Amino acid sequence: MTNGLGGAAGVAAAPLLAPGEPAVVDVRDVPGGPFVFLCEHASNRLPRALGTLGLPAEALQRHIAWDPGAAAMTLGLQEKLGGPAILQNYSRLVIDCNREPSLPDAITALSETTRIPGNEHLGGTVRQQRVDTIWMPFHAAIDELAEARIASGKATVIVTLHSFTPVYRDVSRPWHVGIISSGDRRFAEPMLAALKRDPALVVGDDEPYSARDNVDYTIRRHGFDRGLPHVMIEVRNDLVRTPSDVAGWVDRLAAALIESAGAIGVPAVAGQMD
Length: 274
Ligand SMILES: [Zn+2]
Description:
This protein is an alpha/beta fold. The protein has helices spanning about 55-60, 70-80, 125-150, 190-195, 215-220, 245-265, and strands at about 25-30, 35-40, 85-90, 110, 115, 155-165, 165-170, 170, 175-180, 205, 230-235. The chain has six helices and eleven strands.
């Protein structure tokens, strides 16, 4: 239908973010080692223009909206090992920054068993606005940072931090931590070896997800496609609910990251790379 003003293409959508709302991307950078810490699912924040997407407040606290504990692990690792951290400040329900934006589940209308009314029957203009406003700046910030590091000769390992729900579609998941890889497993293999040395840990290799589930977008684009070593880390979210639990995982993951960097010949001690 046209509106007499040139049709749908001529109608400007209202801005997704109003002046004064938090920035889309949280970029932090301090001198450090080779690790670039990324967190696509750091926040459950929604732009005010989207209200609650038709969801009850309780649903926005659950894993469908974000990865509980992932931002705390990301910031803890950056504090411990230095280097940059880039976090997405808006919920994956607006658009999932770890998906190719053309995929239907990039803006999901059904997450696990929860309908997302505010994501149903979206037109192309609205979808593109979410890509342009939320998705693009996140990946552009990583592009800029990664290219600058490569240009200045800094060794770089891409590390993405996630958490997963203990029960998915009524099935309990046994893993405490999962290492998700791409076609280049040179950093995933030593990470798996380091974590599996702890007999108390159940470590998933491409579990609970793998590239077959289209969860490898960020490591593929920013790691694999640039030839940079990379890994995606998934920690079960009931294990990172308190600050002390997070601190324990930061220590464990930092040790595994340092060991793995050494295994592929990349110096991992803060300061060595600058
Ligand atoms: Zn995630």
